[in-house]
Design brief:
single chain, 362 residues, alpha+beta, BirA Bifunctional Protein, domain 2, 7-stranded mixed beta sheet, two-stranded antiparallel sheet, 14 helices, 17% strand, binds adenosine-5'-[phenylalaninyl-phosphate]
């Protein structure tokens, strides 16, 4: 650090070359100090140290170097001093430059509040959970109770008590997955929610009005409308004077509540060993609006639900008096309902967990 309190002679400066080097060193010292000044306080201290009127370095140079300078150096000292002063004044007039280090540090940490935020997606309930909820709410409003049942069943509840003895050909309607047990054939994954009809009636006397949402399993080949594990909602209503008209009325109500007035329904005679008469409920295809396409297998309709009046033989298994009681039952495919309602053209989309698909149903 050049000591400006000493005279040129004391510093050993005797010619113009040495003088030039001395001022060059001074300028470097100042520049270094200016670059290190981090805030307003340090900047002010820098100004006082170099340009302060009473004891700043410029003042000291004037007093200690210029005034007593020998005649041959006086002019050069004056010139260098003026140049140094001009440089100091120019630098000190621009504080941001002097605080370059501080500015650079602040810049690195700068937060641009005008930048768009990072969107964090909130998870959504799976579309099937939402649809299951909606179906339940509709039936709850007209007096049905929601009940639950086991997914692992016995052949008795899945078949026999539903009027399908061991050698009944109707068992072939459902490709069954059996659970490996020491005695083969003892347990199976329920192929439909209908076993809960039996379990409920065994325990409860009429009037009965239940729906049973749950998962069922079949050895079906997956395609656009078939999965090997899917949801059904079983419905059962038994009382003293229930007719097929009641079923039709309940279905119409449900379809209008769930789909709105646009989707049409139709019943088609069908066969189930545990209902008589039996029907399949179809909804008009949303893709082709009835013209025929891949989704509806060119028929214009998508099967939603198997149904019918409870076969009197079933009452025999649960101890109900078939002469006194009558009722209807139905079993609907939940994925098919969701497909129809939301225009989903492949059932497999429900199970692939692709967030681009799932996110659509907020
Ligand atoms: C039954 O499962 C009967 N238990 C329904 C029933 C209940 C009839 C009560 C009478 C009284 P079905 O096999 O047709 O029926 O299946 C019912 C519904 O499940 C079908 O209408 C369809 O919507 C849906 N479904 C059937 N198989 C599949 C599958 N592999 N993938 C997705 N949905 C299916």
């Amino acid at each position: 650090m050049t000591d400006t309190r000493k005279s040129l002679a004391e510093l050993g400066i005797v010619d113009a070359v040495q003088l030039e080097a001395l001022f060059a060193a001074l300028r470097e010292e100042f520049d270094r100090a200016a670059a290190e000044a981090r805030d307003g306080t340090e900047w002010e201290a820098l100004r006082v140290a170099w340009a302060g009127r009473k004891a700043g370095k410029l003042r000291q140079i004037t007093e200690n170097w210029l005034k007593p300078a020998p005649p041959e150096l006086k002019r050069a000292v004056g010139q260098h001093l003026n140049e140094l002063r001009a440089h100091l004044e120019a630098t000190l007039a621009k504080p941001p430059q002097a605080g370059a280090a501080a500015v650079a540090a602040a810049e690195a940490e700068r937060v641009d509040l005008s930048l768009p935020g990072i969107e964090r997606y909130l998870g959504v309930r799976h579309i099937l959970s939402q649809v299951l909820d909606e179906i339940q709410q509709i039936f709850l409003r007209i007096g049905f109770t929601v009940v639950d049942g086991p997914e692992i069943e016995t052949p008795y509840y899945n078949f026999e008590a539903l009027n399908m003895p061991a050698d009944h050909p109707a068992r072939d309607m459902w490709d069954t997955l059996y659970v490996e047990t020491p005695r083969p054939g003892e347990l199976l994954l329920r192929t439909h929610t209908s076993p809960m009809q039996i379990r409920w009636m065994e325990e409860h006397q009429p009037p009965v009005r239940i729906i049973v949402p749950g998962k069922v399993y079949r050895h079906d080949n997956p395609d656009a409308t078939h999965a090997f594990a899917f949801y059904q909602v079983e419905g059962l209503a038994v009382d003293t004077d229930i007719t097929f008209c009641d079923f039709r009325g309940v279905m119409d109500y449900f379809v209008k509540e769930f789909f709105g007035p646009k989707v049409k329904t139709r019943l088609q005679p069908s066969y189930f060993p545990f209902t008589e008469p039996s029907a399949d409920v179809y909804g008009s295809c949303f893709v082709c609006e009835g013209a025929g396409c891949r989704l509806c297998k060119q028929s214009g309709w998508i099967e939603l639900c198997g149904a019918g009046m409870v076969d009197p033989a079933v009452y025999g298994f649960v101890g109900y008096d078939a002469k006194k009681f009558s009722g209807f039952a139905f079993g609907m495919g939940v994925e098919r309902m969701a497909m129809l309602k939301y225009g989903i053209n492949d059932i497999q989309l429900f199970f692939q967990n692709d967030v681009r698909f799932l996110r659509q149903f907020r």
